[in-house]
Amino acid sequence: MKTKDIATNYGINQTDFDGWLKKHSGIPHKSGVMGGLSIEDEGYVDQAVAQFQQYQVEAAERAASERSERARADEQRELAAQEKQQALARMLITSGFNFDGYKITKYSGYISGDDVVQIDRGSQGFFTNVTDVGSSLMSSLANIRRKALTELKEAAYDLGCNAVIGVDFDYLTLDPETANAGGGTLYLPYVFGVTANGNAVIIEKS
Predict the structure, then answer these.
(1) Which of 53, 64, 115, 122 has its CA 20 to 30 A from that of 34?
(2) In Å, how far are 92, 96, 113, 156, 206 from 107, measured between CA atoms?
(3) Are strands 30-31 and 122-125 parallel, antiparallel or unpaired?
(4) Cβ 162 vs Cβ 90: under 8 Å
(5) What is the DSSP string of 3-25?
(6) How many CB atoms lie within 10 A of CB 39?
(7) What span, in angstroms and rounded, lies between the C-alpha atoms of 29 and 44?
(8) How far is CA 149 from the centre of its chain?
(9) Rounded distance between C-alpha atoms, residue 174 and residue 162, angstroms
(10) Within a 13 Å sphere around the CA of 142, how many CA atoms are in the beta-carbon half?
């Protein structure tokens, strides 16, 4: 019996049934000259349909279980992300080496956080303007310093700490250049970097 007729008689999807028959069934079948599958011994038809329907039920249960597991994993990741953000928001930092009303119970070592910005030089000419490097840098400085502090806090969080002491900043200025296609000098954008340094610690209220 052709699987087309089986699908019609039993109300099942032929494409799914054909795929199952080829890969999972163990039911004797063959391909027709013009394409399509058939089960030559009709005594196997009821068995094949019953096995296929059971396979579909089990596949649906597996899919539901996998969706549930993914949902739980997504929920756990969301909770972990929220907990991290709350911990970072509560984390204390200081340029000094102690906090009033707290005692340091553990030192976890030196950490740092970095960020960088590139500022275009611009072009000088009749129709162009030179970039105001100072203004561009100052408008970017607070942002890159804040990002460096965020990275510093994340480094402390990864060590299981809730505070950072001895925080200071290092600044880096680069004036990169390279050779252009004509053998001249190609001046690349200015690079300004900032590194926030400190020591990760665990503190408790005194």
Answers:
(1) 53
(2) 14, 14, 18, 11, 16
(3) unpaired
(4) yes
(5) HHHHHHHHT--HHHHHHHIIIII
(6) 22
(7) 9
(8) 21
(9) 34
(10) 3
* H/E stretch holding 200: strand 190-205
Q: Other C-beta atoms within 10 Å of 19: how many?
A: 14
The answer to whether the CB of 45 falls within 8 A of the CB of 1 is yes
Dihedral angle, C-alpha 46, 49, 54, 58, nearest 10 °: 170
- Find the DSSP H helices in 91-196: 133-158
Q: How far apart are CA 59 and CA 42, in angstroms?
A: 26
* Residue 182, CA distances (Å) to 69, 121, 185 in order: 60, 20, 9
Please report, to the nearest 10 degrees, the dihedral formed by the alpha carbons of residues 106, 97, 103, 94 taken in order: -100
